[in-house]
Structure prediction request, 204 residues.
Amino acid sequence: MHNLAFNYRKATQAINFFARRCGGSTTKLIVLKLIYFADRYHLRKYGRPITNDHYWAMQFGPVASSVKEIAELDSLSGSERHYAMDYLRKGDRERGEEEYAVASIADTDMTVFSESDIEALEFAWNEFGDRRRHLVNITHAYPEWLRHKKTLDAGQSRIRMDLADFFDDPENPSLPVCWPLTDEARTLAREAYFELNRVEQLWR
Prediction:
C-alpha cells in the first residue's frame, strides 16, 4: 500500500545531500541505499517516508524507483529534469569519477526538507556513511527485502515492496533498526501510515 505523492525536489536534494557528504560525488548504488535508510528511519519514527517514492526489491537491495531515475538523470519529466540538472550531473571518468556516479554541482537546498527529514538524512549518514562499500549486503539483512529473496533468486528482476514491511525489525540484533519500536508503537506507527495514505487518496 502506498498512495503518497512523490516529491522530486526532496528526492533531488537528498541525492545532492549524500553526494556532497561523499566529497562531491558518489555512486548511484550508494546514494540509493542511504536514501532507503533515511526513508526507513523517517517512516518508522514519523509515519511517512521522506521522498514518498515506490520501493522495489532488486538484486542489489531496495530501490526507490523515481529516485533512481533522478540519480540517472533519465526518464524525467520536463520540470523534474530542469530541477535535477540545476543540482546534479552524471559521473565523468575524466574527473576520476566512477562510471555510475552522480555528482553535485550546487549546494543542497535544505529548505525543501522538514526538520524531521534532515534528522533522518543525518541518521542515515551517521549510521551508514562509513559502511558505504557494504551497503548492499547490509540492506539484504532487512525483512522488507528478505521476504522477496527467493523470488529474486528464482530470476525475477524486481518485486514491488510494501512500505508497511519497513516497520518490522531485522533479525540480526547488531543492525540498526532505524528507530526502535515497541510492539504498541509499531502498531500505532503502521496505523498512522495507513491513515496518511487514506487521507492522501481522498484529496486526489
Notes: The chain has a mean pLDDT of 92.
